[in-house]
Amino acid sequence: MEHEREEELYRLQADLCKVLAEPTRLKLLSLLGERPRAVKDLVEATGERQAKISQHLTIMRQRGIVRTQRAGTEVHYSLADPRILEACRITREVLLQQLTQQASLAAPLLAGEGV
């Protein structure tokens, strides 16, 4: 029984990672980390089409990453749990460290090639 729960948790974690594995969604999360925003504000900030932004927000809302609140005629989106930004920050730091290490390994090789 415990093994089944653990496997289910891994599956759910992988599903969450799949939702986050999209650059526009990461950008939206970053913007929503600043403050709740209406769809039109997110469209303006990203330069993307409203349909595309709405689609991404729907996916993240269904997964429980963002939540909505009606403000007059507008729907404002906010982060359901701000800790998601910490997870994104950590993965970004890991990526930047990997890129830095790769660059430092490649620099002597490139210098030796006379490029």
What does this 3D model show about the protein?
The chain has a 3-stranded antiparallel beta sheet with strand order 1-3-2. The protein has 115 residues and is of the alpha+beta class. Helices cover 71% and strands 12% of the residues. It has 5 helices and 3 strands, in the order ααβααββα. It has helices at 2-20, 23-34, 39-46, 50-62, 83-112, and strands at 37-38, 66-71, 74-79. A hairpin with a 2-residue loop joins strand 2 and strand 3. The radius of gyration is 19 Å and the shape is flat.
The main sheet orders its strands as: 1-3-2
Helix content: over 70%
Distance between the termini: 59 Å
> Which outline best applies?
flat
Catalogue the unreliable spans. Answer: none
Name the structural class.
alpha+beta
- Outline the biggest β-sheet: 3 strands, antiparallel
Q: Tell me the fraction of residues in β-strands, as a range.
A: 5-15%
User: How confident is the prediction overall: mean pLDDT?
Assistant: 93
- Number-wise, the strands total 3
**Rg over C-alpha atoms, rounded to the nearest angstrom:** 19 Å
Order of helices and strands: HHEHHEEH
